[in-house]
Design brief:
Elements (H helix, E strand, L loop, with lengths): L1 H12 L4 H29 L7 H19 L9 H9 L8 H22 L1 H8 L25 H23 L11 H16 L9 H16 L15
Helix pairs in contact: 2-3, 2-5, 3-8, 4-5, 5-9, 7-8
Membrane topology: Multi-pass membrane protein
Subcellular location: Membrane
Keywords: Membrane, Transmembrane, Transmembrane helix, Transport
Length: 244
């Protein structure tokens, strides 16, 4: 009787619509990605570097990519990034009508994950910042969630930084998954992508933290805006430690 009931429950809960399955998989994968990535940054910032540093934060972000791809790769393809979804559309490998849907899901997942990280590190953030949620100053905490440019960075150099970092990411991923190329052992593609992300972070992260994923930056930034950091998170420039 119990087995029959369990089978009925599974049948009722089973999602048959392919688009819905892809969206839920993408949402879950992005939540996992951003949850781990931002937690690595939060641990570094709120401990003033005693329980993490820039290298551990980069490593957390890279490994988060690996886990996220394993989470949703077989269902949605684990795009995780609007820039990658756009690239696949331009290459004719992804339908344009799905693009805005995936971008919305990716941004929502990032927003939800930012809220989860804020809840997880709430006490640490309050203690570190003396109860003041600021996007600038010595005790700022907005950079836990979003990426901000270094004080010396000009607009043109920042634009070049974004284009170059994202281009290397996209080219690298396309090379890794190209069956006509020198293949990565089957099942290890997420590991190769994680190593690619890590290599970009440790080589191109000083200007503005490698924000190679628009959803990863905008979703958490929007969360900080509504959670109490205010509009400053959209206009402040200089000195951030947030990671991409």
């Amino acid at each position: 009787m119990g087995r029959v009931s369990l089978k009925r429950a599974r049948a009722l809960l089973r999602i048959r619509n392919q688009l819905a399955r892809e969206c839920l998989a993408e949402l879950l994968a992005v939540v996992v990605l951003i949850l781990i990535t931002l937690s690595g940054s939060a641990q570094m910032v709120t401990s003033s570097g005693t329980k993490g540093n820039i290298l551990t934060s980069y490593l957390a972000g890279a490994l988060a990519v690996m886990v996220a791809i394993y989470t949703a790769g077989g269902v949605s393809g684990a795009h995780l990034n609007p820039a990658f979804s756009l690239t696949l559309c331009l290459l004719g490998q992804f339908p344009w009508w799905k693009f805005p849907i995936f971008v919305a899901v990716q941004t929502l997942g990032s927003f939800i994950a930012a809220g989860a990280v804020y809840a997880l590190y709430h006490d640490a953030i309050q203690y570190y910042s003396n109860g003041t949620l600021a996007a600038s100053g010595p005790q700022e905490t907005a950079s836990i969630f979003a990426t901000y440019p270094a004080e010396y960075l000009s607009l043109s150099n920042g634009f070049l930084d974004q284009v170059m970092g994202t281009a290397v990411l996209i080219v690298g991923i396309l090379a890794i998954v190209d069956s006509r190329n020198k293949g990565v052992p089957k099942g290890l593609e997420p590991v190769a992508v994680a190593l690619l992300v890590f290599s970009i972070e440790v080589s191109m992260g000083s200007n503005c933290g490698c924000p190679m994923n628009p959803a990863r930056d905008f979703g958490p930034r929007l969360f900080t805006y509504v959670a109490g950091w205010g509009a400053e998170v959209f206009r402040w420039v200089g000195g951030g430690t947030g990671l991409g």
